[in-house]
Specification:
Length: about 130
């Protein structure tokens, strides 16, 4: 599993790192859980540099092929990054195919109440309650 880059590492982000106010707020707050879920649409090069900026260069070229696919990454404080790669679009015959877009979805941790076990069904008789 790829570990996110620690917040205290002050390296510059890669050149195609996506610029979005919500993403900047998430990174600046060290993944504050109550910011809420949000989604960004970007090109594949931006998704690659997003991964490089968050996790470092190791494994940044491991992506779904031109048919598309999805990848999930664990972020600090229970956040999840889901990258959904769309299929490639057919380009002109000379240039080949054109890379599809990528949806980056930042999913916050579930609230504690929803992570608890569901309540047991009530017993309908004393015999069912105490077997």
């Amino acid at each position: 599993m790829i570990e996110p880059r620690p917040i205290w590492v002050k390296e510059p982000y890669p050149p195609c790192f996506p610029e979005d106010p919500k993403l900047a707020q998430l990174l600046g707050s060290n993944y504050y859980p109550r910011l809420g879920r949000f989604k960004l649409r970007m090109k594949r090069r931006h998704a690659r540099d997003l991964r490089k900026g968050l996790f470092g260069p190791k494994g940044s070229r491991n992506v779904p092929d031109k048919e598309g696919g999805a990848m999930n990454f664990a972020l600090p404080n229970g956040w999840t990054l889901r990258l959904t790669y769309h299929p490639a679009r057919g380009g002109d015959p000379e240039r080949g195919w054109e890379a599809g877009d990528v949806d980056a979805e930042f999913i916050p941790p579930r609230p504690l109440k929803s992570r608890l076990l569901p309540r047991q069904q009530p017993a309908y008789s004393v015999a069912e309650a105490h077997p």
